[in-house]
Each structure stands twice: as structure tokens, then as C-alpha cells.
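Dear colleague,

Following up on Tuesday's group meeting, I ran the structure prediction for the two-component complex that the binding team flagged. I've pasted the input sequences exactly as they went in, so you can double-check that nothing got truncated or mislabelled along the way. The C-alpha cells for the whole assembly follow below. Feel free to forward this to whoever is handling the docking comparison.

Inputs:
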Amino acid sequence: MRLETAAFQGERGAFSEEAARRLLGRRVNVLPCQRFEELFRNLTEKKVQAAVVPIENTLAGSVHENYDHLLHHDLPIVAETSVRIVHNLIAPPGVPFRNIRRVFSHPVALNQCLNFFSSHPRVERISFYDTAGSVKMIMEEKPSDGAAIASELAAKIYGAHILKRGIEDDRQNFTRFFLLEPAGAKPRTIRGAGKRPWKTSLVFSIRNIPGALFRSLGALALRDINLVKIESRPLRGKPWEYLFYLDLWGHREDKVVRNALNHLGELADFLRVLGSYRAA
Amino acid sequence: MRLETAAFQGERGAFSEEAARRLLGRRVNVLPCQRFEELFRNLTEKKVQAAVVPIENTLAGSVHENYDHLLHHDLPIVAETSVRIVHNLIAPPGVPFRNIRRVFSHPVALNQCLNFFSSHPRVERISFYDTAGSVKMIMEEKPSDGAAIASELAAKIYGAHILKRGIEDDRQNFTRFFLLEPAGAKPRTIRGAGKRPWKTSLVFSIRNIPGALFRSLGALALRDINLVKIESRPLRGKPWEYLFYLDLWGHREDKVVRNALNHLGELADFLRVLGSYRAA
């Protein structure tokens, strides 16, 4: 059994840490990174054996920064998972709910708990750089009127108390995470991946000519390969041209997917497979 | 001639104000709004006659929040423009460059001037909520060591001094803006729009069935209608399903576009045209 460490972005207790434990087991060592750049650098330099990054949320959409990082690093996607985002109101032990006047969290989390704030108008929302980091801060500074919004894991790690569970407006709030490894790492068994179907993620760019995207999707559709997702990102240095990120059903080594990738390669200026992995 | 006011998000001097003046003339009245929600509400309630919103940047990508607002409001797109983002280092008059130790601006702007910061390591980057707002702040507080990064217009409006012009890393930095009006407003003449070709923006969703996106793009491609842009956004309440925003060449009243929209309507669960306007 190898002793391994997984990097994630955020403070201890972030939803990314929850995803890392789900993918690699509850006892995996973790390395929190302040920024995604740092996480990608740590994995590229093999200071860690794996990294877990959020790629999209069902309410907020894609994490575009990470699409850009995937393009610029050769770090294959080897697994995915999806974590339901449950926001909890968290305070230092002994601080009762009636004392709370200020709530700290990441702006995205604050915006996902608007019903809570409208039914408690006495409470002020204060933006903080991180959800779990806001729990860490209130446990260090112990404001008598302050609380944080974060995961249950964050409350546990910092020894804080959950005042209200599940205060998010929308329960259909999931974040999808990728597990990345250095290129050429030995294939691993992912917990619970079982025999779930394969997905493949890729990125390509096409010349700006009529029907180019239609023809590119045809390379898949005409082979009955199904698209899961398509995402466009601006192409740096070529204003108003785009890269496309695709997720499709199938493994890159399946014959039909291989043929489709060859066909797509004929149409694309640039094509790279980011990884094949079991669907979450 | 009607006396009109255009809303934009940000402080006076924001790049959005520059876009508004370019679209509506230098002397248009403007209403700065703190948040995009407020801007959309002001236009819906006809407190202003027009609003200007950023929709994508060639480096940072789409402004997804505004795609979501376009979906939820019936405020047609009547024009577009593209503004080159020139970042300037701005200080109160009399503060020389050698004194600058702290630079305030929106995090996106700070991140677009990394070469400047690496060649001046003595200068600290400090995140602020707005580019033009950072100029307003340094002119109010007059720190002896502080500067801001913002537009030339912001320097002019607040009477500040430009210490260095064009400190952005990448000159291919453009933001595309939409001009929105209340539904049913009288068509207007947009300055400089001349006889430039028409574009149409629309949003649709499709059932999650094999080849659905391919067939949808076929409704356009098989009629030789060219796609300018495609963007996906999560469909609220339906995890891992998406809405698609498309820009195509042509006017919604062109016969071929009308046919394509009818065809797309047969395939889509939902389809709405957001507007036809002259290309920038």
C-alpha cells in the first residue's frame, strides 16, 4: 500500500477535501493549497501523488480556471466524483444562534443561502476568501456575534458547533470533482468506481469556418457516441475564437471512440484527450 | 431627441461606462449600479431607457451571471460593442511612481498586469471590489503610497493622474458588451453600426438524448447559417443538464434564420431569441 498525499485548493475542511476523501479513502493525507496554480504545480513536480479539483457546480456552472489549468498541464483525469453541497451555519461552541449578527463565508456560499438571510434580516453577510477558512477564522478570533457557513467536515476539523444544518436554498447543489495524477502514474482502483460506464474528457480547437463545430460533433454523433457536456473557453491571443471541452461516454481505447478521435483530429487544429475515467 | 439614461454596473469610470458612451454617444446620462441584479431591475422597471452589460472577455471568458440574467428578463439585446481593456496605473496628483507600494484594483485587473508586478516586486497587490472604484477610493483617502489600476476614463472622472499607461500583460484584451432595452422599445440608430452584418443571440435547452446538440446545430449548419459562439450553462433544478446560448450570423427576420429557428424549436424543449443586432 502506498502512502499518498492528495492536494486540494482551500483550507482544511473544504468541500474539495470531502471529495478527496471520497475518492481516495477517509485516511488519505491531504495538502491544502491556497491557489489552484499551486495545486497544479505541486502535482506536476510530484510533491503530491494526486490532486482533486472542482470542475463544475450544478448552480454556479463550470470552474473555468481549472479548465484552463487542465489545458496547460499534462495531468490526466483518472476519476470523478460528485459531492452534494450542504451549507451549515457554524459557530464557536457556546455561541447561541440568537447572538449571531455577522456571517462569514465565500461569496458563492453566501449567495446560495439567500432564504436564510431574508428570514434573518438582523444577520449581516460578510465575504470571506474560503468557506472552511471562515470556520478556522471564527475559531481563532471567537467573535461573540460571528458565525460561518461551511461543510460539516470543516466544523468537525476546527471543533466548531453546527447551529443550523442544510441552510442552502437549493438542494440540487452538487459539485463535480476530478482526480488528477501525474502522467504515466500506475492505474489505481478508485473506491466505489465498480463497473460504472467510462467517460472521456477532451479539448479541441477548430478553424473558424462555417459548420466546423457541427462537423466536429458529427465525428461523435455519426458513431452514436453520446456527448455529456460541451464547454467553450476563449482562445488566448485569438480574440473571439474558442476552445471546446467535451465529455463523452466511452473510453479512449474503445474502437469506436478511437475512430471518432481520429476523425475529430482531422477536423481540429488542436486536440488533446484529458483522460478516461469511470463516471461518478 | 429623447433624454435618456443608461444603467451600467460598477462605479463611474468603469469600462462599462466607456462602452455605454461608445454605444449611445459621449453625452448620455448614466446610472451606475452596484450589482447586475439592480441594473436588470432598473431596466425592467423602466427607471432607465437602456443598460449596458459585459458578456465576455477575450481572456477571462464569459460573464455567466449576465447570461443567467438575460434568460430571466425580457430585455432584448439591441446592439453590441467591443472595448479594448487598457489598464493604467493611477495615483492622486503629486504622488510620484517611486512612492507607490500598494496597488488596489479588481482581482481580474490585478491578474491581467502580472508583468508589471513582477518587474516591481516592492509593490503589493490589494484586491478591491471595482477598478474605477479603486480610483475613487485613492482620491478620497489619498494614501501617500497607494495607486489604482483602472481605465483612462476613471482617471479623468476623479481628477487622478495616470502614472503608467497600458500596463496590461496582453493587448488582445477585449470585452464585448450588450446594449439592452425594455421589450417593445422603439428601434434606435446605434452610432457607427452602419451596414455591418446582423447577429442573433438565442438560448435553448434540449432533451438529454443522443445526438441532440448535433441535430440542433444541424438546423443552422444545413442552412449555411454560421455560428459565432456557443456557451453552455447549467439548467437549474436539473443537475448535469445544460442550457445553450448561441450567437449566429443573420437577423431573426431573415427567411433562412426564421426557418432555422422553427426547426430548432422542433428539437428544443425551450427556445428564446434574445435579440438581433448589428455586429460590432
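The mean pLDDT of chain B is 93.

Cheers,
M.
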